Amino acid sequence: MDKSEKKPQKIVLLITRLDRGGSAELTMQLAAGLSQRGFDVILISGRTIEPLWDPEQYAANHGFSIQFINSLVRPLNPVKDFVALIRIIKILNDIQPDILHTNSSKAGLLGRFAGVICRIDKVYHSPHGHIFYGYYNRFISRVFILLEKIAARFTTKILNLTEFGRQDHTRENIAKPNKFIVSSCGVELEPFLENPARNLSEPPAHPIQIVWAGRIVPIKNLELLLKSAELLQIQKLLISYKIVGDGELLSASKSFVQQKGLRNIEFLGYRTDLPEILAKCDVFILTSLNEGFGRVLVEAMASGLAIIATKVGGVPEIITDGINGLLIPSDDPDALCNAIMTLYKKPEMRRQMGFENSKKAEFYSLNNYIDKIINIYQIFN
After folding, report:
1. If you ran DSSP here, which 8-state letter would residue 47 be given?
2. Do 278 and 151 have their domain in common?
3. Checking CA distances to 221, which of 108, 116, 243, 250 falls within 20 to 30 Å?
4. Domain total of the chain
5. Residue 379 pLDDT greater than 70, yes or no
6. Residue 343: its pLDDT value, please?
């Protein structure tokens, strides 16, 4: 058969859920990018409750197919997990993909076990961070680590977003070091580059506008910012805050603000116009307890914002303390308060960090990421 007549490689991407969040967005964009580059792509996911986009419409618009497994859920559920495993095995047997690429912890475990049963030769896994700490108690975390060690035996390569994530996996002896590759991450930068923050276009001035964006859930630790805002209010500084996102702790966060009498804090809810929101701000704050990469950091960087972030996970590989942002502990409101005051009092530092970030963000473009993934598929057979 002539080379031009060969059928395109079949790639199955598997993820636990396509709910709002960086891992879901990146997996959808990877599916679209692979399809546009000539691969036959099938995306499998648990039933999505809070999708970033309409998954089926997005798949239709970008040339890949999508299948849902209702029993594939995020919480531990032995019955549903077993049913999901059987369903994944059936789908893989029907499709017979050339490549299986699992994403996120639950789908990563079930998918790789299904992959070895279905005798798929090329199996890749993207953890998008990990759940070794920060999510579950120590016993459950150790169970996940044991399962990861088993699943790693059936994995061609494990793709970490950062060197820190790779080191966490090797530290836990998940597999030998040569099993891991740092793939980095990809972000669609254009909407943010086209909406530069006022840091870059206007003379620095007061009041300053701080923005926080993410899921309002325990791991994202919004409480740290709210406690710092309480401390800063005593200083009577000209600061206002925009909180972008929703989640299980939204109501509790609003109650905290009301009970403490905090002013100039606006909860915007879930928004699709983040580039425009960031453009009107001066400082972006990330307060996570654990963060595999932090795509929103790159979005804030592309906008030209100065950044304050907790020194967790892969964040220090993106933010260099004192150069393009300030790093703080994840449990210290006083440290965050001091960092905010530093950028408040040093407008030229804010501006310089913004310029540095707008340049550095280009390394994390979505096209660069997709090219890296294809290269990994081709090199490691």
Report:
1. P
2. no
3. 108
4. 2
5. yes
6. 95
Report d(CA 15, CA 102) in Å as an integer.
6
- Residue range 333-357: average pLDDT? 95
pLDDT tens sequence across 202-226: 666 668 999 999 999 999 999 999 9
The DSSP code sequence of 167-218 is HHHHHTTSS-GGGEEE----B--HHHHTS--HHHHS---SSEEEEEES--SG
pLDDT at residue 130, as a whole number = 62
Peptide linkage before 207 cis (omega within 30 of 0) = yes
List, in order, residues 6 or more apart from 233 with CB less than 8 Å away: 262, 263
| Whole-number Å distance between alpha carbons of 272 and 302 | 17
Report the candidate in 33, 131, 111 with the shortest Cα–Cα distance to residue 67.
Answer: 111
Based on the domain organization, do 217 and 339 belong to the same domain? yes
User: Going by C-beta distance under 8 Å and a sequence separation of 6 or more, which residues neighbour residue 265?
Assistant: 226, 229, 240, 241, 243, 257
Instruction: Tell which residue, 60, 40, 56, has the closest CA to residue 48.
Output: 56
Mark whether 180 and 211 lie in a shared domain: no
Question: Average of pLDDT values for 22-26?
Answer: 88
The tokens for 2 are 């002539």
Question: Residue 58 sits in a domain of what CATH number?
Answer: 3.40.50.2000
Residues 63 and 162 in one domain: yes
Domain extent for 238:
190-364
Same domain, 118 and 260: no
Same domain, 173 and 270: no
Q: In what order do the strands lie in the sheet with 283-286?
A: 265-269, 239-244, 208-213, 283-286, 306-310, 326-328
- Quote the pTM value: 0.82
pLDDT band at 106 (very low <50, low <70, confident <90, very high): very high
135, with CB counted inside 10 A (0-12, 13-18, 19+), is middle
Find, among 316, 325, 314, the residue nearest to 291 by Cα. 314
Residues 120 and 204 reside in one and the same domain? no
- Give dist(CA 256, CA 246) in Å, integer: 15
Task: Give the position of tokens 């501006």.
Answer: 351
Q: Are residues 349 and 375 in the same domain?
A: no
- Residue pair 136/268 in contact (Cβ under 8 Å)? The answer is no
